[in-house]
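Usage

Read records sequentially. Each one opens with the input sequence:
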Amino acid sequence: MTTDNRLKAFLTECQERAESALDQRLPSANKLPQRLHEAMRYAVLGGGKRMRPTLAYATGRALGLDLGRLDGPACALEFIHVYSLIHDDLPAMDDDDLRRGKPTCHKAFDEATAILAGDGLQALAFHVLAHDSAMAVSAEQRIAMIDTLAVASGVAGMVGGQAIDLAAVGQSLTLPELENMHIHKTGALIRASVKLAALAQSGIEADTLQRLDHYAKCIGLSFQIQDDILDEESDTATLGKTQGKDKDHNKPTYPALLGLAGAKQKAREMHETAVAALQPLGAAADMLQAISLYIIERRH
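and closes with the structure output:
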């Protein structure tokens, strides 16, 4: 089987595994408050690439971990990610009508319910990390995971990056300023996806953890660069979200700063650096390497 076929099979396996785990850990739509739970399930289930859970599973595979131990962290990562999407789509933020090929949460329900659904998913993420018995980790490991996700999703990570993004609308940023924004907004949770899985291995060597983190930092940037490229080159039907909204909102992007060719070259450089960081892990990291390439070649 070729690497491409093995990656496709692995991505499908991870998506199906994540979907089942998410369904099990979300509150039932029949449980009060029903409308809130319906909104949470609507936003989470039945869509998305599941890139953050997949990165957690791929890291676990590279370290020889049982993937069942990573279902909890994978769900926690996706809950934080979806909460951020719900809030990002609100009129006070990006004011978008489409997400993952269907109406955004505030369009399908209402703004107040969407805000509460995001709040509920954020809290649920930390509850899962604190209590999921299948993780089979020590109290110290569990605390380290909770701390990692809290930092990555808070003002030093994703939320801080979103604040920088909002303040940058209509502004001209330098390349270091643009990278700093996306290291926080997009990259922090991608780095946490790899680190949470690594922390599930008891006594992981510092050098291995550092290499995995450098890999994750690079693909976090390449992921955002490719998003910016697709916002220029793709279409709404393919993306499953509104194409061209960054340009319409006058947001700073990599193509705007570097041109399309320059942005594509930058993404390729990030991929090559990411793969180089994984070399000591050998064939065990084959899916992590393949995911890095997939990120810069994806069309949605």
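Summary fields computed downstream for this record:
- The longest strand covers residues 98-99.
- Residues 3-297 form a domain with the Farnesyl Diphosphate Synthase fold (CATH 1.10.600.10).
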